[in-house]
Design a protein that fits this description.
Layout lengths: L3 H33 L17 H12 L3 H12 L2 E6 L2 E6 L2 H10 L4 E2 L2 H11 L8 H11 L5 H4 L2 H14 L9 H18 L12 H23 L9 H30 L2 H13 L4 H5 L6 H30 L3 H12 L8 H6 L1 H13 L5 E6 L3 E7 L5 E5 L4 E5 H4 L3 H4 L35 H13 L11
Parallel strand pairs: 2-7
Antiparallel strand pairs: 1-2, 3-4, 4-7, 5-6
């Protein structure tokens, strides 16, 4: 007679044997795949805890708290090469700043990689679902919605920036006192982004800002800081318990929801109108300023989906432009020679609003923006996850020139910050701010301020030229505070 214990032991043995067989078969397939593509072993960066990788996590957290994380990681690239492997909290991550690998990840082998489920889980509470946290068909749909945002006419519309830059100038101290200009730039880009996206600006740079807007601005900033922190934590983001984050997300969404309802109502009224009224209505809309939200509701009817699409663009529109402006002005406050050349180029406009061709033709302005983005990339590092067994073309073997096997589900971290400062790619002055290098420089995957491949930023330089120009045309004289901050 078979006892209960015997049945339990038999079932346990079957389960163990099953999973052991799966592991062996997967391992054999991985070896065969790696061998067929000439893959060689990837270098492991030295670490004190190679099993759980706790030391790497703690060192990274310490560097982050001390605000030196980017140089900290760049130093490891200098010491261990352009591609290496680290165990981080039990996960083997591949780190790379090798142009050949970046070309594969972002372009030639684009379909082998994705943002991954963790990115969406971490960002969804605040961003919703949109272009910056989706993959596959959902991303393709989001991309199609967003692309019209960056038409030539829209990115050269000076009237929006003229108003909000004037508001910024009016808010700056006029007594020579020290101030943090980045705070003002975040307000500027939020004002311009909300006007473009919603058809109604937050106007947080005006003195008569409402309490609702102030609450929205504070909640938006807090929620985004939390999202960035959790993206960095990756799979460990669940350890970040912060009830204030949920409150901030809810507050930001409450501000946006009535704007979405208004856009949906306008769309319904347009569809229900008679042909004659509809024609007149469409003519009136054509005369009004472009509003991204009104365009989205033509393609999407679900309020939650609309909110996700809009919030994704709002986050990017606020943060990236503000960071570029901050870095540019921080650099110019130390480089009066560069500022003088920019002032001469801007003076050629004789005070008139620039056309698209004017902005495109301002050679030194474009050089200065490119150089700022090289040294102070607005997205200094990023990640991708392999959605199938694949490989990178470089990093393996003794000399680091052989292909490297990447298993399904493995994360790759790539850092544009260190890529843009590699002396073997940019010369011995790679760490110097020198706009003139762009007279001859024609980089490919050595320069990734906008990503590359299908996920390249649809606006690229065009969306940032105008705000830089409008701010420069009115903020000619700036200097660093005594402590150099």
């Amino acid at each position: 007679m078979v006892t209960g214990n015997e049945i339990l032991w038999t079932l346990s043995a079957i389960v163990v044997t099953y999973f052991l067989a799966i592991t062996i078969v997967s391992s054999l397939r991985a070896r065969q795949f790696a061998r067929s593509h000439g893959c060689q072993k990837l270098k492991n960066a030295p670490q004190k805890d190679p099993i759980f990788g706790v030391d790497v996590f703690l060192d990274g957290e310490k560097a982050m708290r001390e605000k030196r994380f980017l140089p900290y990681l760049a130093k490891h690239f200098e010491e261990h090469g352009s591609t290496f492997k680290w165990n981080l909290m039990g996960d083997d991550l591949i780190f790379t700043n090798e142009p050949k690998n970046l070309q594969a990840i972002l372009a030639t082998k684009f379909s082998d990689f994705e943002l991954g489920k963790t990115r969406q889980q971490v960002t969804k509470p605040f961003w919703g679902i949109g272009i910056f946290n989706t993959d596959g068909p959902m991303w393709v749909h989001s991309r199609a919605l967003v692309r019209p945002n960056f038409s030539r006419d829209l990115v050269s519309d000076t009237s929006t920036y003229n108003t909000h830059v004037s508001n910024l100038i009016n808010q700056l101290p006029s007594d020579g006192s020290t101030f943090d200009i980045q705070d003002y730039f975040f307000s500027l880009t939020l004002d311009t982004a909300t006007e473009h996206l919603f058809g109604k600006s937050t106007n947080c740079l005006r003195s008569d800002t409402s309490d609702d807007v102030k609450r929205f601005v504070d909640a938006f900033a807090y929620a985004q800081r939390t999202v960035v922190r959790r993206i960095r934590m990756g799979k460990l983001a669940f350890l970040d318990r912060d009830p204030k984050f949920s409150e901030a997300c809810a507050c930001a969404h409450r501000y946006v929801e009535p704007l979405i309802r208004g856009a949906i109502l306008r769309r319904q009224l347009s569809l229900e109108a008679t042909e004659s009224k509809k024609s007149a209505h469409e003519t009136q809309l054509a005369k009004e300023r472009y509003c991204f939200l009104d365009e989205v509701v033509k393609e999407v009817s679900d309020p939650e989906q609309i909110q996700g699409q809009v919030m994704n663009i709002l986050v990017a529109g606020r943060d990236t432009t503000a960071c570029l402006l901050s870095s540019l002005f921080f650099t110019l406050s130390r480089r009066s020679d560069v500022m003088a050349r920019l002032r001469e180029e801007i003076a050629e406009l004789s005070g008139r609003d620039p056309t698209y061709e004017d902005i495109k033709g301002m050679r030194y302005l474009n050089w200065a923006i490119k150089e700022t983005l090289r040294l102070y990339t607005v997205v200094p590092m990023n990640t991708r996850v392999a959605n199938k067994d694949t490989y990178l073309p470089s990093g393996g073997g003794f000399d680091g020139r052989s292909p490297v096997y990447v298993r399904k589900g493995q994360m790759i971290v790539y850092q544009a910050y260190s890529l843009h400062r590699r002396t073997d790619l940019w010369g011995s002055d790679a760490n110097d701010f020198r706009p003139e290098r762009w007279q001859d420089a024609r980089p490919s995957f050595e320069y990734l301020p906008f990503n590359a491949g299908p996920r390249i930023c649809p606006g690229e330089y065009s969306v940032w030229r105008l705000p830089c120009l409008r701010c420069l045309s009115q903020c000619f004289y700036l200097s660093l505070s005594q402590d150099g901050s």
